Sequence to fold (261 residues):
Amino acid sequence: MHRVTPGSAVNVNFFYNNTEGNALFNYAPATVQQGFYTGVWNVINSGLTQFGGPTNFQITTTVNVFAANTDAPMVIGNIPAILEPGHFIQLTAQKQNDKSILNWTVNILAGIERFFPERSANGSTYTTLAELPAASFSFTDDRALPGLNYYRIKMIDKNGQSTYSNIAVILNAQKGVELMSITPNPVVNSNFKLNISAAQKSMMQMVIADIQGRVMQKQNINAIAGFNTVAVNVANFATGTYQLFLNTGEGRSRVLKFVVQ
Fold:
């Protein structure tokens, strides 16, 4: 899978009916919000007008903020309810010796046909590891590749449609930490998730600095051996570009830059 962040704004149309929202979704308001879902709802457009009804609805909007280099479904809703058509899969991964332990959850159990755990060495070309029945929500890869292993779950429903989970990364090594990504980036509602893969359980410190190198925030992280997702709040940050890195027992990690809007 090749992900490309658009270089300019794009027009987006949502089409939905009055049976596709979750239990909290309210079709009555004239306006809704739109954003990305990366485990939390990141709102990027508010006050969007719904057309149609009472059965079929449409929303037309322009998007100029994108979840760069990550799998982030685009959603609409009225706070705090997201319109959730279809299935959503959340994958977690832990490391035990040279094995990768995968566990996942889905938002809707009905209609699932089977699961396919997939692995990649480069984050783009994936190989199927197994075919599992609908009642399975875990898998152990006992032949993890040396170095980074990118995992995702492909789900097939009874209509033949496929849905992919988020990507979880395992560092199969004796030691080491990989700073993987910041999602969403740009940060649009003062919160983001920092994705880290650690070869072993360890303590580390996250450091955020401005573009001139002045330290703005520090946060201690107790990482598990496996894929870690850390919630970070930057509500006190001004609009601009920042840099983030980790201080570990083995030294300093690579630097990731992010933008606060």
Remarks:
- The chain has a mean pLDDT of 85.
- The radius of gyration is 20 Å.
- The longest strand covers residues 147-157.
- The chain is about 0% helix and 55% strand.
